[in-house]
Amino acid sequence: MRPPGGKLFLPFGVKLFISYLVLIIVPIFMFGYIANTILVNSYREQMNTNLTGTLKQIRDNIAYKMEDTQRLSDLLYFDESLPLELMRYEEGWVSYQTTKKLLIPKFRQVTDSSNLRIWMSIYLKNETLPEIYNADPQGTDPLTRGNHWDLYHLNRIQNKPWYADFPPEEYGKTVVWRQVEDDGMFGRISLLRRLVDTRDPMKLETIGFIRISVYLSEIFRSVDAGKIGSGSMLSVSGEGGRRMFASGESGLLLASEPGSKAEFDLGRYTMLEETLPELGWNLAAYVPNSVIEKDTRKVNLLTLIICLLSVGLISIVAYGVSRFFSRRVSKVVSVLQRFQQGDFHKRIHYRGNDEFTIIAGSLNKLGEQTEHLIQEVYVTNLKKKEAELETLQAQINPHFLYNTLSSISRLAKFGQVDKQHQMVMNLAKFYRLSLNEGQTVISIYHEIEQAQAYIDIQQVKYGERMEVHFDIDPQIVKFMTVKLILQPFIENALQHAWRGDRIYIRVVGRMDAGTGSIVFQIIDDGSGMTRERVEEMSGSGSGQGAGAAGSSTSQQRKGYGIRNVNDRIKLYFGSDYGVSLYSRPGIGTCVTIRIPVQPRSRGEQRQNGHDHIGRTG
């Protein structure tokens, strides 16, 4: 074949094929055929016996894990004390005691006694008992959180087809393994079982339903193709021949996919099958004949004689061929390594007209396109980050404005014009500093000045009952920060931390030489908080359980301000910076804010050339 340029086009695959055919494939095929004819019959039977035993052992391991999961459900199914409590339809204290003293410890005991990662969902007919569950975001796998359990009412699943089609109950026997809900999406399978009143086996009354979800990868952990030989494959197929799990040779896996156009020579493999009785699924092993016939010593001896005679000639020719192609391959590998390191500027060029020339052109074009896409993604992400920061900045809740206006109204009512005027001026100053002409990043000097303006407003309201002291290192005022990181915490202290009629707040700012960052601390001597409350405000609490519904709106707002500041700092400066809390009830609270050292612009330096920080409010 001659391309339009007139040069002979000899494909790279043809070159390799001819070389392997002449130098390797022909002699190996000849002597391999003789050896296989002699030994294949004697070793096949023995190897098949060994492989069959291995496959049965794998099947038994799978059955053991499934039986172990069923034993977990037996702890609830055969517990005769459980129906007595679940059939008590009494609300209030009785329902609370049943849940806290019996159900929660029992469910935890079941989930903790498993070596597998499980997610147990219990559906109870008794709706006087509360639901307890974690509200995971849609599209996420709850099982990634590890072993846990959820408690729901039975009416959540009564209209679902998999529950409606569940077989009639037989005492201790009705257990079904099936993929329901989102199990298929996340590679799970669920054990389904009714929870019945077992005190009378002749009259089994349904009191609930059990669903225990387990990853298929854990159930089929023993399905390892390495146990039966190199180049083999183990496959677990469900209804309709759909593959549920597989392990082994990647090329064989691809070729054996339903609808695949890749060639799959079944004659080169020996297939063994076992049925998984609990699931009705099929466990199949595809073993290359080369594994079964590996103990062909006569073939090795005969092949060795021929190989010693041909090794000299093959070595000389192979060296020249490999040297020719290795140089070209090395250039491709070099470019790919540079691409992997993020450098897309390197280009390669080959003389000739073969596959290497096509690869070089494609790689060069790929580098140009990738470089262009990286630039576009960088600009897009930069705009997205700016938009997210502006959104968080706009979400700061200035609920103190309502209280300030109320205070102004009260001062006007009682004729305290001077204080009214002072508070109005302080409020105007506060919002002038907060708006900052729409800028998100301001100098630390302006941030402290804005916090002082807020304190001046509150000083009119509280008078001598509040005392705020600033202890700021003058060296840090020349650096920059995102705005409104101090005022929300001072506001939280004045809103929630009062202990008696007085409160003392200290604002500290210093340079941390060890980490090369700036650290602020807002310390109060107020009522303090419990560790659980600190975790909830920091956004590190456990999820949305039964008790989460009782959180008050004021508590949510209190924690929101902290998370807002923390999110803004992390969004702008990175995950190494942010807010941390330490508090002890009856002693007080310390809020630590860490930001990087950010020099401010020359305009800011000229504007605030005589900054002085450290006054007491």
From TrEMBL:
Region of interest (Disordered), residue spans: 533-559, 598-617
SUPFAM superfamilies the record matches: ATPase domain of HSP90 chaperone/DNA topoisomerase II/histidine kinase, HAMP domain-like
Residue intervals passing through the bilayer: 12-35, 301-321
Basic and acidic residues: bias regions: 601-617
Localisation: Cell membrane
SMART domains: HAMP, HATPase_c
UniProt keyword list: Cell membrane, Kinase, Membrane, Phosphoprotein, Transferase, Transmembrane, Transmembrane helix
InterPro entries for this protein: Bact_2-comp_sensor_kinase, HAMP_dom, HATPase_C_sf, HATPase_dom, Sig_transdc_His_kin_internal
Topology within the bilayer: Multi-pass membrane protein
Gene Ontology molecular-function annotations: phosphorelay sensor kinase activity
Cellular component, GO annotation: plasma membrane
Primary location group: membrane
Domain HAMP: 323-375
Protein name, entry field: Two-component sensor histidine kinase
UniProt lineage: Bacteria, Bacillati, Bacillota, Bacilli, Bacillales
